[in-house]
Amino acid sequence: MARALARTLETRLAPRTGAWGEAFEAFLITEAHRLASYRRPDYRLSYLRTKDDAEVDLVVERPGKRALFVEIKSAQAPDPTEVNRVARLARDHGRAQPMVWCSATAPSRVGEVDVLPWQEALRRVF
Fold this sequence. Notes:
The protein is α/β, with parallel strands linked by helices. The protein has one domain (about 20-125): Trna Endonuclease, Chain: A, domain 1 (3-Layer(aba) Sandwich), CATH 3.40.1350.10. It has helices at about 1-5, 20-40, 80-90, 120-125, and strands spanning about 45-50, 55-60, 70, 95-100, 110, 115.
């Protein structure tokens, strides 16, 4: 919306900028909604913002399974602080499974958090 109002829709987004990160997050959330509507209509998608303003970008509630708390990062190697934050939020809110979707080229694990290339994350979850 902001880009439309600023008349910059035709301007290419520069990687590693705030606008790039916002567009990346919006794209992945839209893809998650699209895939869930076709393949997993029983999944419920939302987000979480705590009273302290901590945020989970995407919460995926899956019947019979642990909810996923997803942090979306456009970086190839997300900041460990962000990875630990989503793990802490998942612990604080029951048995949620923390996950980071990002631009990495290969999956990895940081503590209890799966850090996945976004394409693989969408395949695994949906």
